[in-house]
Amino acid sequence: MLAATLAAAVLAAPHTAAAETVGTRSQNSSVSMSTTTAHPGETVAFDVTLTNTTAASQYSGLFLWTDASLFDAPGSCTVLSGPAPTCEIDPDGGTLAVEYVCATECRIPANSTARVRLTTTVRQDAQPGTYTLAPSGSVGDHESVFTPGSATFQVTGEADIAVGLTATAPAVPGDTIVYRQTATNNGPATADGTVTTTLSDRTTAVSDLPADCTYDPAGKTVACSFSGLAPTATTSSTFTAKFGVLTVGPLPATATRTSSNPADPDDTNDSAGANCTVVTGLFIRC
């Protein structure tokens, strides 16, 4: 008996999306998953189906064995059809179980099918990577032989990239502005990505570009890539934009995270702006 027993909500409407991806099946059972890829903290549902083709009610069960660091306990158990089973998950998350083992009322009746949804979450400290889910079980004396013999589950990390942008006017009257765009990785995973600064449409040229940056003169954009950015680390790219000698008025610029990997969970800090103004002639104020 596993240590943590999940509450079975008989015929309750599930709050988690139906598990549609078949992970593995046998001659008398199957396991479907709501997703095969998830982030730490994300909910995952397993739909377990067990079919009794005999002429008598049967003790039955299905177990999913995996790495102890993958899933959280406890979870929830929702009966979709048939009798209510005992749903369990061990405290370290390494085994998920659906068992029809009581004296009479929770055996699977003759020539019938039972379905249950086991819902859990990926542990917050689960490491990104590929995990194996190995099934085992039986319906009565009929041992389940699964094909494939295991299913895979991918944990993808998250990395919150915060974008910054500053603009520095020349110390003496001139026609250039120095921009510095930054990307700070708030974690928890290491990240790759691109931050793109959209310059004023009055920009005539860009110079002093770092090696990891490119300038698109048509779109007036500077795109800078980064890779292997560790949690808490910041990377910056500095470049110079040039404007026409007759330019007057505002020169807005915006830096935006245009791509990153792994997924960014917070889009509220994905962009930053810097505003400068040409007051008169070549006098620029930022």
Summarize the structure.
With 286 residues, the protein is mostly beta strands. It has strands at 4-6, 8-10, 21-25, 29-33, 37-38, 43-52, 60-65, 76-81, 86-89, 95-100, 112-121, 129-139, 142-143, 151-155, 159-168, 176-188, 191-198, 203-207, 213-216, 221-229, 234-243, 249-261, 271-280, 283-285. It is rod-shaped.
Average pLDDT level: 87
CATH architecture of the largest domain: Sandwich
Instruction: Please count the beta strands (DSSP E, at least 2 residues each).
Output: 24
Distance between the ends: 68 Å
Q: Strand portion, in percent?
A: over 45%
Shape: rod-shaped
For the biggest sheet, the summary is: 8 strands, mixed
Q: Which residues form runs of ≥5 with pLDDT under 50?
A: 1-16
As for the CATH topology of the largest domain, it is: Immunoglobulin-like
Helix vs. strand class: mainly beta
What's the helix-strand series? EEEEEEEEEEEEEEEEEEEEEEEE
The domain tally reads 2
Number of helices: 0
Measured on Cα atoms, how large is the radius of gyration?
A: 28 Å
Helix content: under 10%
CATH class of the largest domain: Mainly Beta
